[in-house]
Amino acid sequence: MSDYALLARQLETLLDTRDWLTNTAQTCAFLMHEIPDLNWAGFYLQRQPGTLILGPFQGLPACNPIPFDKGVCGAAATSRHTQRVADVHAFPGHIACDAASRSELVVPIECGAELWGVLDLDSPQPARFSDADQAGIERLVDVFVAASDLPTPEA
User: Fold this and answer.
1) DSSP 8-state secondary structure symbol assigned to residue 28
2) What is the pLDDT of residues 61-119, one digit of tens each?
3) Contact criterion met (CB below 8 Å) for 44 and 100
4) What is the domain extent for residue 122?
5) Burial degree of 79 (CB within 10 A; 0-12, 13-18, 19+)
6) Is the pTM of this model over 0.90?
7) Phi–psi pair at 60, nearest 5 degrees
8) Which residues contact 3 (CB under 8 A, 6 or more apart)?
9) Domain with 111 in it: what CATH number?
10) Which of 1, 22, 87, 139 has the CA that lies 20 to 30 A from 155?
């Protein structure tokens, strides 16, 4: 189990610039290195209404674009609530970018009242993400948002 309080302090130190692009790249690398049993970590950004566009990530090449009505990322974008899926193959509309992925955690990121994007974590392990993982990753997203000057989705 990860020590998310320690990880939050480490991420705060790592994100030493306000640049959102640098911070997304650093956050992805940090998560892949520090969170066990991940096979993909990355951001999808809302750059046009109803669609997520691939941003910085770590892992195999990814699906792009993702409409809001498809997959776990689309569900998180539409609902603006974290989606924690124990078995992605049982999720209606799941987008299979990597057949090895078995579970997924997607945290929406808001900029003011607008959806900015999502942080997507995939694992080859079924039911990889617990309540504690969800709360910890949501805290790490808060650290990322506080450290970054996020452009508005229209930019």
Assistant:
1) H
2) 999 999 999 999 999 999 999 999 999 999 887 787 778 899 999 999 999 889 999 99
3) no
4) 18-147
5) exposed
6) yes
7) -65, 160
8) none
9) 3.30.450.40
10) 139
